[in-house]
Amino acid sequence: MKTNEINISLVGKKVSVMVTGMRVNGIITGIWEDEYASGVRVKHEPVQWGEDSYTTLLSTARKCDNSGNLKYTELI
């Protein structure tokens, strides 16, 4: 996904994202944007990393070159 594809209609869509090197499925719960970057908030299946368990992710990328985790976020 690229920063120019981010819009409010994506909320509720199913996606596949990279979390701690693992690909997991989730649902977009919101959109995030500032002057330099934009992205999506994703609630995903639990990922265990040591003693921590992660269930949400903010997948973002820079607007100038689309560099960031957002490039690994794919609609299902």
Can you give a write-up of this model?
The structure is a single chain. With 76 residues, the protein is mostly beta strands. The chain has one domain (3-75). Helix content is 0%, strand content 58%. It is built from no helices and five strands. It has strands spanning 14-19, 22-33, 37-49, 52-62, 74-75. Strands 4-3-2-1-5 form a five-stranded antiparallel beta sheet, with no helix packed on it. Strand 3 and strand 4 (52-62) form a beta hairpin. The radius of gyration is 12 Å and the shape is globular. The termini are close together. 25% of the residues are buried.
Attribute tags:
mainly beta; 5-stranded antiparallel sheet
In brief, what are we looking at here?
This protein is an all-beta fold. The protein is built from no helices and five strands. It has one domain.
